[in-house]
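Input chain follows. Return structure tokens only.
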Amino acid sequence: MYDAGTPLNNDTDDSDAQASEALWPRLRRQAHFSTKLYISASRVALGHRRWVAAASLMGVLSLGLLGGGVYALTSSYEGVQKAALTADSAPQIMASGLPGTASPTWLAHADQPQTAANPVATLSMAQPEAAPDTTNPLLAANDDTATASISALRPTQDMAPEAPSGPEYVHTTIELSSGETLMQVLTQAGADRVDAYHAVAALKDYYSPTKLRVGQAIDLTFQKAPENDLLTEALDDKDVQDSDAESPALVLTSLALQPDIERSIQVNRSADGAFTSEEIQKQLTSAYARGKGSINSSLFLDAEKAGVPAPIIVQMIRMFSYSVDFQREIHPGDKFEVYFDRKLDEDGNAVKSGDIAYASLTVNGRQYRLWRYETADGGIDYFDDKGQSMKKFLMRTPIDGARISSGFGYRKHPILGYSKLHSGVDFAAPRGTPIYAAGNGKIEIAGWVNGYGKYVQIQHANNYETAYGHMSAFARGIKPGVRVKQGQVIGYVGTTGRSTGPHLHYEVHLAGKKVNPLGLKMATGVKLEKKEMAAFQAKRALIDRQMAETPTLTKVAQASTDKDASKAN
């Protein structure tokens, strides 16, 4: 059947060809018509003469713009032909031994080719086979100017790059002042605040910064940031002076401190910028020392002159304080001897005192001798040659290094002005001197009591009580209901309450009645039984034998002094 909506293919091709042929004549007719219309309208608007002048001006401008465009496109290629013609006659430059290579950096002259005799030449001038262009002075083979120009390009030894130097470190030691934190001293020393925070956090793995004491030395290491030498030289060339220029930045790399004799803490910065810490235990060895001498002024001063460390002297005073009144019974000519342990570092220097193994004190011709011994139940005490512990129920003097300024009895009160019973003993001592509990017991009062100021009262066994007045402060943890041990620090000497100067007012109460502390006859402590007496005697013999083989500190000190004097001479 015939489909009126689907034309045949050959009919379609003929129609497209006819439409294409009719298009171009139609466009030409429209362009011709538009040009005539534009010219006619221009002539009517401008007039014949004005139209000719305007048409001429537009033509000149069009030609000028066309010429400028052509020049702009071709000017960048000017000299290309000349460069191409002279390229074959130009010298060929070959470089070797550049910075970073094994060969040294230097340049050869233009007339010095690289040969086997000169294997390290770094610049050779290879001339072409054709004759050089003598019209160009730079290419003349025998022209000194060409040689000088090329020689100016030759690098000298000063132009060689310097080998990079290693990082520069700054070491410093700081000390902690009162009221300062570790973060503060680190940032004040130049550490970045973020670095200081992470360094302190790493330190906490082994040591709490809150335990740092005033005066604690801390070693710091910083790395200097490299300076820009080229920028510095440029500023120098321009005579730029900046007095306020900042110093090179410091980067914290390590922190070290020694919280005690036996260990140190090290904090280091790793390659990724994180801080890690480690604890270094020092290897200390034990060695015994022996000191002896006569008392001329006081046990403390004379023992210190004999080379006995202060902690050992204090320990010795406490050992004998149960039987000897150091304020009234010590006289010139009395003698002392002590045998004690001490810790030595890797260099053999004494860095820490240990325990007393033996001590003796001769007072008014009577000798007191004590040996250290650990009982079967693990207790450690000092016993005399009969196995009797020297500990008493109560200490006679609960303070070290004090003098009796007022005894027990009636006296004229220094403030009230009338006679009144002085119900205790006053020990004059510097403010802040530690005060010890005279015996084991429980604290009944720890607070302010009129007349006594800051006051502590301790209840002991057998209806005994002791009281301590005029304190400047209580020791940490001291409050009613707390149990204390004999010799434990409970407070510090002061002058609170009715007082004319720093001292300790010490009282002893028996069944509620105040008694003279210096007149009490206290019962002794433990006595070794027969089963342990044999072991104690063996331990005592060993200590005596070792002590006899140990030179006294006075002789060692004298030998050291003589040796130093001989070196000086």
